[in-house]
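Reminder: ligand-aware prediction takes two inputs, not one.
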Amino acid sequence: MSKTVLIGSQWGDEGKGKIIDVLTANADWVVRYQGGNNAGHTVEIGDQKYVLHLTPSGILRESCKCVIGNGLVVDLIGLMSELTELTERGIKLEGRLFISDRAHIVLHYHKAIDGTKEGNLEKGKKIGTTKRGIGPCYMDKADRIGLRMGDILEADFLDRVREMAISKNGVIEAMGGEALNVDEMVAEIAEAADYLKPFICDTIPILHKAVKDDDEILFEGAQGVMLDVDFGTYPFVTSSSTGAGGAPAGSGVPPNAIDRVVGIVKAYTTRVGEGPFPTELFDDMGAHIAQVGHEFGATTGRPRRCGWFDAVVAKYSAMVGGINEWALMKLDVLDAVETIKVCVAYECDGERLDSVPASISKLQRCKPVYEDFKGWNTPTTDCTCWDELPEQAKKYVEYIEAITGVKVAILSVGPKRASTMLLDR
Ligand code: GDP
Ligand code: IMO
Ligand code: MG
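Here is what comes back for the chain with guanosine-5'-diphosphate:
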């Protein structure tokens, strides 16, 4: 049985939730290993739509168990409301959801600091965060002052929350923000902590047993490689390791247990939030992709910026992510596009670049070098296998494989489970 990491390989929202859901038909475990409720993973099953932020997408298949690993930052109130909604919709959680006692807790002050900091930054410097407190919580983790899920089980937990909140109120006020009502906050945290208590445990031995028993394990990445704190378009990134390397660090499963990495990419590119995006479209074509692809953030509802497929980004993600295969998503969104463009290199200061530069100002000066590709002008969303695809659509898939050097193993032509092809060519 395989131990597979699925990672977003652009700037997030590639369709990770959908692919996890498709692959959980055969999986025993789904493990989230980084990020928090900045993520929004959509799964559509029949006429039901679920958007999961902290809960692994495997929760929707009863045969699958789910782990919120040590690498996450968990918003207690956000998670409680997500789990309450899932329960109301008939999803059983008992014995299926395990939350690491080593995962860090996002508290009200992290969100207040996130929002205040963003508000204080001048245009051009804003990151466009989800304001979910992700960065400030990872800061506290690195500063060794964070509270962890396991602390909930200790008698002095609420005292520690109170003490931290009083000290962070000083920080918030110094930033020009509004101090939090500590009593109200502690009461809300007490309720959510109580609700989540039964799910908290040491997930490391559980996952090691799963590895030893040779269970099928899927690691569900959040965000995407271009938002990785090391490899992404820093500083316009999130605060965790979104790539495959994050999986061992954020779950306790050792790297040599992982045998497959699937990179998830859209047939074009989107980005939500600020930061460079070389193939971004500002014209009618960008609006067309946004409209057909329903490109609005699953967490914040913000419109996503849209552009052409960027093979420089895909190759770079494949390189740093150790990607073995692609899941190519949303091919159907390009069904009515006459001429599709693919960025094969960048041109910067008279020089041709084949990899993503570290310097943000250099990346901002990069102009995409495009190759044109004739569209297929035929609906693909009802195609169920390779042979049913229009010839030009097949050629587009093969073209992406050729320029990135990675095979497309999964092809998605619609949001539903059925609109997915596991390619065996
Ligand atoms: P994630 O964060 O990577 O899980 O992706 P999101 O859920 O934020 O965004 C992906 C969106 O695309 C969701 O609304 C999905 O329902 C939708 N989607 C996924 N795959 C396809 C596809 O192949 N075609 C179309 N048209 N929509 C898709
Ligand atoms: P999923 O898992 C797309 C972006 C934000 C912002 C930057 C930093 O659904 O793909 P943060 O709140 O993390 O400090 O914001 O990262 N971002 C995402 N963009 N999809 C996501 O998650 C994202 N999570 C964070 O828009 O630009
Ligand atoms: Mg998303």
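The pocket of guanosine-5'-diphosphate (ligand 1) is lined by residues 8, 12-18, 40-42, 44, 293-294, 298, 329-330, 332-333, 412-415, 419 (CB under 6 Å). The domain at 265-422 is CATH 3.90.170.10 (Adenylosuccinate Synthetase; Chain A, domain 3). We will return to this case in the review session.
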